[in-house]
Amino acid sequence: MSERDLSGVGELQALLGQGAEFEGKLVFHGRIRIEGKFSGEISGEDVLILGPSAEVRANVQVGTLIVRGGSLWGQVRATRMVEIYAPSRVYGDIEAPQVFLDKGAQFEGKCTMTEQRSSSEAALEILEERRLAT
Fold this sequence. Notes:
mainly beta
């Protein structure tokens, strides 16, 4: 994956469009974008983009999270970065090595800056957490 283009302009592997609703567990690789409503759990090693019409109620564990105007309720863990642009609304704790909060974006929660890990280290940690949960 190119570290240069995190804007969502590159190729998407999946799109939950405006007007669509989904409830459940989403596991992904690559870059996905949500414009509709999602509730449940989201995990992946790459880039999750929430568009202006997104309404997400989920705990999120990804490589990079980019919120471009939508709303997110839930805990966020990112191995690379979290970017929140106005007029986004994020309600929940964030844990990531890098966090960008745009002027005018709304964030309610706790932010913890962590060490940046490689995607293989993060994947091993996710697998261990899943093993312990069963």
